[in-house]
Each structure stands twice: as C-alpha cells, then as structure tokens.
Amino acid sequence: MKFFNLHSENIFSRLSVDFVTETRINKILFLVFISLFGLACENKTDKELTIQKIITYSVNSSIRALEVVNDSTVWFAGSGGIYGYTENNGDSWNIDSIKTGNIVPHFRSIAVTNKAVFLLSIASPALLYKSNDKGKNWEIVFRDNDSTAFYDALVFWNDKDGIAMGDPTEGCLSVILTRDGGNSWQKIPCSKLPQTYKGEAAFAASNSNIALYGSNLWIVTGGKKARVFHSADKGNNWEVFDTPIIQGGQMTGIYSVDFYDDKTGIIFGGDWNNKEQNTKNKAVTNDGGKTWKLIGGSKSPGYRSCVRYVPHTGGKQIIAVGIPGISISKDGGKNWRKISNESFYTIRFGSSFKSAWLAGNKKIGKIIWE
C-alpha cells in the first residue's frame, strides 16, 4: 500500500491567502489524497478471478483434508493414513503415513496451529492425532470408541481453542472442544446441545462443516434435516436454525459452510445422488445464520462439496468446488460461472487469493490465476 505525502503545511506557508481560500485548498487536497489512496489500495480481486491453469501433484490417497498455512506451506491428509506437507509452494513434498496397531486411519479432517498439527480419522474408533514436530512423532489425544462414531470436521480458532464435530451418537451431534492447545479434549454432553432428528447427520466431504469467525461457530447438517447449529461463545451455548436447503434424503443437505464476517455467510450442498440439481442447494445469510435466502439462477452450479469466500473481496466473490467442477460468483452468489471441469473435493485460500489450493482423489491442485 502506498501513502502519498502532499506536504500541505509547506504549501500553505508559501501561499498568501485568506482563511476561506485556505479551507478550500485543504478540501481539494484532501479529495486528491483520498482518490490517490483509493487507487493505491485497489485490490486485484475486484476483477473476477479466472483460472489460467491448475498444477496437480499426484498422491496415492483420496484427500478431503487440506490446510493452507501461508503462501508456501500447505498440509493435507487422506485415506490410508496418508498425510503430507510442502514448505516451498509445492516444489517438494514430505509425505508419510500413520498406522496404529491394526488400525489404518482414514483422515478427512486436519488442523494446523502455530504449535502443532492435528489429524482426525473417521469411523470407529475415531482417533485424533497431534504432532509437535511436523509429523515425526504422533500421539493420540482423543479417542471415541462408540460404534457409531463418525467425525466430519476439525478447526481451531487460535493456538489454544479448537473444535471437532461428528455425526450424532446419543441424540445430539458429537462435539469435542479443547482449551489447552489440543492436549486434552472434552465432549459436550447432549444436555447442552440441541437435539438432532433421526436421520440428521453431517458429511465428511471437505472438512468444511464448521465455520469460525471471532467467538462464533457454525456447524451444518444434512440428511433428513439441513440445519445450522450456532454458538456465539466458542461452544458454551447453542441455538439451531432451519434452512431452505434440500433435505429428506440420505445424501441431501448442507455439505459446506463459510462466513466472511459475523453476519455474512453461505451454505452449499445439494443432492449427491443428483449432482446437476441446482435449486435449493445454496443459500446466504446477512444476520449471522438466523435466516437464510436461496441464491443462484438457472445457470448456477449444482452439488458442490466445498464453498469459500475469496479473501479481500468484501464477501462478493465466492468459489465452490466439487466432483462436477469449479464455479465462481462475483456478486455474492446471485450469478455463477463455471471456470473448470476438474473434479476436486475441497479448496482453501491463504491470506490472499494468490494461495489457492485444492484436494481431490489422488491429487493436490494449485491454482494459477490469469
């Protein structure tokens, strides 16, 4: 960002003007400064992003867990206990796998803090691994032996506070919290959570069933009911809101959620068995998730497994990825354009749009923008 010093005091010391003239000049200079400041701060992403190419890296794993740390560092985890990372923007990768006894974990959730890396497996027993040394050593910090356990997403607010969620096991969602950097985890009792409906669950499709902003968190569900669970205080108190997203079938509902700020959010999903259906599969909120409005016209995308706001675009540009391809909106979801037919499960941005990474079946992708 460039700042322009107009040296107005020096200008005025050389001018012989009365107070009114000086005030007018001040106003003119102020307007000039604002104009130049606006030009200097103009964001490249005011223009709709277009993919020039996608660089892919082959990995022998189905990958739905992805974390972009910065412009150079990316972590992933997938099936077969495989995980890996790059610290040089994909020029080289460190890839390894985990096995616990006879258990080969399948990962669909990952989180990276400044202190540690966390991998969460699906199915029973659900295992949450933590490493303090970039995967050289791992310890299990949480284990859920319930026969119906199935965890879907994991995310951290900061280096100490984290949350993971899974399908219902006792009439409520499985929600675990940590307040000590992931060393210990506590499961929230059903007495403190909204009850779920029979057949209501979540989808471990992209590690994006949870969205965080400030102290807020939102969790989305599908199946018989497509709802949004909300906590404004990091999981201490809860409320739940209905949505107009398609529901009732085993594979219908909300697959992904993202919030640009504490009021502006989007949910996306559809029917996995009818991926071209593009109605009642995406909606936005302007009141923090209390109410939702369906979006998208006749050319909008159908089923997508992950949705993300493009950083620094005022909540206007949104990108959605899934098996059918990649679509983008530049007007908050009213209109969409398909920008790639390549299949991916999930997408993550770094602090800017420049670091856009994807993950899919046996591949990691890096987007190069035009």
Give a concise summary.
This protein is mainly β and 370 residues long. The chain has helices spanning 8-13, 19-40, and strands at 51-68, 74-78, 82-86, 94-97, 107-112, 117-121, 126-131, 139-144, 151-156, 162-166, 174-178, 186-187, 200-201, 210-213, 216-220, 222-223, 227-231, 239-242, 252-259, 265-271, 282-285, 293-294, 306-309, 318-322, 325-329, 337-340, 346-349, 356-369.
What does this protein structure show overall?
The chain has 370 residues and is mainly β. The protein has helices at 8-13, 19-40, and strands at 51-68, 74-78, 82-86, 94-97, 107-112, 117-121, 126-131, 139-144, 151-156, 162-166, 174-178, 186-187, 200-201, 210-213, 216-220, 222-223, 227-231, 239-242, 252-259, 265-271, 282-285, 293-294, 306-309, 318-322, 325-329, 337-340, 346-349, 356-369. The chain has a 6-stranded antiparallel β-sheet, with no helix packed on it. The two termini are 22 Å apart. The model is unreliable at 1-25 and 27-43 (pLDDT under 50).
